[in-house]
Amino acid sequence: MAGNVDVVVVGGGVIGCASAHALSSRGARVVLVERSELAAGASGRNHGLLLSLPDPALAALGARSLAVYQEPAEDAPADIRLDRETVGFLIVAGESEQERESGRVEAEAVAAFGMAVDHLDGDGARDAEPALGPEVTEAWLLHDGRRLDPAALTVSLALLARDRGAEVRRHVTARSLLTDGDRVHGVVTDEGPIGADAVVVAAGPWTPSFVRPMGVEVPVEGARGWLVHLGEPPVLPRFLLEGAGWHVLAGEESAPATRASHLDAGFPHPDVGTLLHPTPDRTVLAGGSRQAVVSPEPEDPGVPRQIVRQATRWIPGLAQARVLGGWWGIRPMSPDGLPLIGPVREGLHVATGHGPYGVILAAGTGELAASLVLGEEPYTDPKPFDPL
């Protein structure tokens, strides 16, 4: 299937589909190739939450993303179920001083960034959120948080790109880059080469292995995250809920490489916390976890049990909810929590390393990547995301 287009996008997750959407909206001839289904990985296996990030660089990407999502929310090919207004995000802590300090730090960070935050004692928290149990001693209610369907969003971005002329090829694996010296001019797929002026690799945690033959090292590590889907509990939580200490502030995220010595000592232990998402259909998505990825299959299949144990600590009624299912996705983690967006060789760009913020930052990432590929003036400073 040899041909010549302006841009090939490798990866049908939310970052790749957003990049194809942004490029095609600018009139570029785009081919998107995805080895499986659209949103097959973490893009379709996450909470689907839009949260404000107290970092100026990330805030610009997030604001642009929300604006893009709101545009097609009514006319998207699939219903992305985007909340029109914020639903509230409650950070809770127990007796532990470490938990309370973690909650205070996160609340102060978002408040300093201009978000309204209500500080509550245990009784005040239970008045605001009747589903809470007795362990909560302190809480912070952020006037923040929107929900959407991440798989529907990803597919909608791809279909909107297709409506603008992009070609979307599923079940087509990109095997390698077409090169002329250090210049990249397309990809080789299982169905043949595709010539292009530029290639955007948005393959999540698989990006490093795809570009490494070009002598490019992209510092991204895979981290597996689990979700457990629970049926309607006796009292459905009103707010999105986080156990204090689960979210790491942007710029402080650390994803060290897994060394052979680590593996010799055993699989890396999972980091398990609480992030609860009461859905519009009155079920609850319970997370979360982070664990370095070593093999295609889960290193520790007992993580869902730990997630449920922590979730019921804060919302005791969840113990009575039916388990509807569980699943995992692999997130691409960068060393400092900031995504990598931009050129790494002539004709070769990457867009990866978004960690848990893929949906939050996807459309803004696509807009930035498109401007860098096409030589336009970017809407925000690209330097914080420079892959090199």
- SS strand fraction: 25-35%
Secondary-structure content class: alpha/beta
For the secondary structure, the number of strands is 18
- Overall 3D shape: globular
Secondary-structure element string:
EHEEHEHEHEEHEEEEHEEHEEHEEEH
The percent range for helix content is 25-40%
Number of helices: 9
Largest sheet: 8 strands, mixed
**What are the low-pLDDT stretches, counting only 5+ consecutive residues below 50?**
none
Q: Mean of residue pLDDT?
A: 94
Radius of gyration over all CA atoms, rounded:
21 Å
- For the record, give the distance between the C-alpha atoms at the N and C termini, rounded to a whole number: 32 Å
Structure explained in plain terms:
This protein has helices at 14-25, 56-70, 97-112, 122-128, 150-163, 207-211, 260-264, 303-314, 358-374, and strands at 4-10, 30-34, 49-50, 89-93, 117-121, 138-142, 146-147, 167-170, 174-180, 183-189, 192-201, 221-230, 240-243, 271-278, 284-292, 323-333, 340-345, 348-352. It is an alpha/beta fold and 388 residues long. It is globular, with a radius of gyration of 21 Å. The strands form three sheets. Strands 1, 2, 8, 9, 10, 11, 17 and 18 form an eight-stranded mixed sheet that branches. Strands 5-6-4-13-14-15-12-16 form an eight-stranded mixed sheet, sandwiched between helices. A two-stranded antiparallel ribbon has the order 3-7.
Set down the secondary structure blueprint:
Elements: E1 4-10, H1 14-25, E2 30-34, E3 49-50, H2 56-70, E4 89-93, H3 97-112, E5 117-121, H4 122-128, E6 138-142, E7 146-147, H5 150-163, E8 167-170, E9 174-180, E10 183-189, E11 192-201, H6 207-211, E12 221-230, E13 240-243, H7 260-264, E14 271-278, E15 284-292, H8 303-314, E16 323-333, E17 340-345, E18 348-352, H9 358-374
Parallel strand pairs: 1-2, 1-11, 2-8, 4-13, 11-18
Antiparallel strand pairs: 3-7, 4-6, 5-6, 9-10, 10-11, 12-15, 12-16, 13-14, 14-15, 17-18
